[in-house]
Structure of Tol-Pal system protein TolQ:
Amino acid sequence: MNDVAQTALAATSHGSDMSLMGLFWQAGFVVKFVMLGLLAASVWTWAIIFDKAARYGRFRRQLNQFENTFWSGQSLEELYHTLSDRKTSGMGALFVAAMREWKKSFEKGARSPIGLQTRIEKAMDVTMAREMEGLESRLGFLATVGSAAPFIGLFGTVVGIMTSFQSIAASEQTSLAVVAPGIAEALLATAIGLVAAIPAVIAYNKLSADAGKLGGRLEAFADEFSAILSRQIDEKIPAR
């Protein structure tokens, strides 16, 4: 290697910042855009994780509190008057929806026990669907990040490596000191993609399982309460 090549190689190796911030600032526009997008997705992913964890905790406590109140022996009318005047969720929302349909039907002179039972079950089904929609909201974003982030990072890596090879061909230098910075910049995009994807996948699986368990508790209460109302309907509206 002649003196000119040695001087250029030394300047290249000393001028390359191999820190994470240095690699980011040295990356091309497309690779920077990919990295920033993945970092934004990662921040939003963690925001969703913390929000869902707190919300599921509150929801679980509300279910426990309502179950204790419901099975304490308090009359259904008293519990309905207590809950109907305030915003409720979970089992409380199912209870209020069923009782509201119950009272409306009897105020209008319900005569068919089968029709009343069907309307009550429909009211609880609609309310349960709304509650599950709230529990499962934004989980799709976690699934999308978990599946797409590695490929987006890989796209940034491919673009970065192509750019590095073009620079190597233009400089006619193939030593490790010349190649390494460009390759490191490109691989950083894949690393950020994995950093965004791994927590998203783990959180999606965990939160989906938690949402399923909470939904199962809602369904169990809906079935139990429907059976209670069915017995009372038979007492108030004898079958003909």
About this structure: The first helix runs from residue 3 to 15. Residues 30-236 form one domain. The radius of gyration is 30 Å. Residues 1-14 have pLDDT under 50 and may be disordered.
